[in-house]
Amino acid sequence: MKKAINKITLISILFLGLVSCENNGYEDFKQESTPSVALNGEWYIDVIKASNGSVQVQHALHKTFDSNDGKMWIDDIKHGWWLKGKLNVNPANLTFDVSKEANLNDPGTTFTITEGKIIKNAAKSKTGVVVDSIYFKAEFSYEPGVIYIHAGHKRTGLLEDDY
């Protein structure tokens, strides 16, 4: 009796293994991506006052993600210089900018971003993993003429690389 149960179990497992590997229904599946996919991610960014080179914030986590309208969101989750809004993107050359965008992390203010760019494989994480680099200059409406340089690298997702 025990041999019969073992045979039935083995045959059932083999049958399920064969049936579960079918690809039926996926022939017409097309993976789509958004225009800003190459610019999206999580970034550790230092905020530096351009006039004197002083670091204002170190390793602030920023997120960039697609807004589904041809633009890209940036959000520092109030860890950096309180920055959140939509950016114009040029995915072909990995650049971004915006002028007088409403700052959703600081209502009633705006920000301008210039010289925004992603450079592929141009930085290293905390543990030396090669990652993308991000750079942009920001000016905020409450401090006209004061430029803050934002420069950093992409987050790897590995715990040992987190700050």
Task: Write up what this structure looks like.
This protein has 163 residues and is mostly beta strands. The chain has one helix spanning 2-19; strands at residues 41-49, 55-66, 71-75, 84-90, 95-102, 110-124, 130-140, 147-154.
Record the SSE blueprint.
Layout: H1 2-19, E1 41-49, E2 55-66, E3 71-75, E4 84-90, E5 95-102, E6 110-124, E7 130-140, E8 147-154
Antiparallel strand pairs: 1-2, 1-8, 2-3, 3-4, 4-5, 5-6, 6-7, 7-8
Protein traits:
163 residues, 1 helix, 8-stranded antiparallel beta barrel, elongated, mainly beta
* Anisotropy-based shape: elongated
Low-confidence stretches: none
User: How many helices in DSSP terms?
Assistant: 1
Helix content: 10-25%
Structural class assignment: mainly beta
What is the H-and-E element order?
Answer: HEEEEEEEE
Kindly estimate the percentage of residues that lie in beta strands according to DSSP. Answer: over 45%
Strand order of the largest sheet: 1-2-3-4-5-6-7-8
Q: Gap between N and C termini, in Å?
A: 60 Å
Please outline what is shown here.
With 163 residues, this protein is mainly β. It has 1 helix and 8 strands; from the N terminus they run αββββββββ.
